[in-house]
Amino acid sequence: MEITVTVNGRAYTRDIEPRLLLVHFLRDELGMTGTHWGCDTSNCGACVVWLDETPVKSCTVLAVMADGHRVRTVEGLAGADGLDPVQQGFTECHGLQCGFWTPGMMLTARWLIDKNPDPSEADIREAISGQLCRCTGYDNIVKSIRWAAEHDTAHEAAPAGTTVDSKEVSA
Ligand code: FES
After folding, report:
1. Pocket test for ligand 1, best of 41, 61, 108, 132 (most atoms within 8 A of CB)
2. Which pTM value belongs to this model?
3. Which domains does the chain have, with CATH numbers?
4. Does residue 37 contact residue 59 with C-beta atoms inside 8 Å?
5. Cβ proximity of 47 and 59 under 8 Å
6. Cβ within 8 Å of residue 29, ≥6 positions away
7. pLDDT digits over 140-166, tens only?
8. Which residue numbers delimit the 2Fe-2S ferredoxin-type domain (predicted)?
9. N or C: which end of the chain has fewer CB within 10 A?
10. 126 Cβ partners below 8 Å, 6+ apart?
11. Does the C-beta of 37 come closer than 6 Å to ligand 1?
């Protein structure tokens, strides 16, 4: 079936199998491999993206459920003025580690700071509690998110404007 999903401010239309998961739609149909695929059982959080304004595990969402909705992936975090403070924080505080779970962690962090500009350590640990770190090094991730909160400057929560992937959209 044909779906249209706006990803990072750009509308994409694709003809897909109804059983296709959102994580595979992003990676295989759109080539956005920043969204990682770890467990496929809703345990690890590597696949977290935003569906509209809410972080979701994209391995538990069918792509057809995103039809007509907005998705934000790690590719949409940076703005025209450079890296998002969350990305900068992970760099400054060595929160990247192996990197596999970083995209999902950063999207959850962005969501948290948008909702709570001054999160406590407990707030941060609760927000990322559904996401595993294979390196088991949560301290630097928490420090990275705190750094981002302290350096955040009225960041736009959603990418500005919507463009259309014209070569792919059917008439
Ligand atoms: Fe989705 Fe692990 S791949 S939670």
Report:
1. 41
2. 0.88
3. 2-76 (3.10.20.30), 85-155 (1.10.150.120)
4. yes
5. yes
6. 12, 14, 16, 20, 63
7. 999 999 999 999 985 444 444 444 443
8. 1-77
9. C
10. none
11. yes
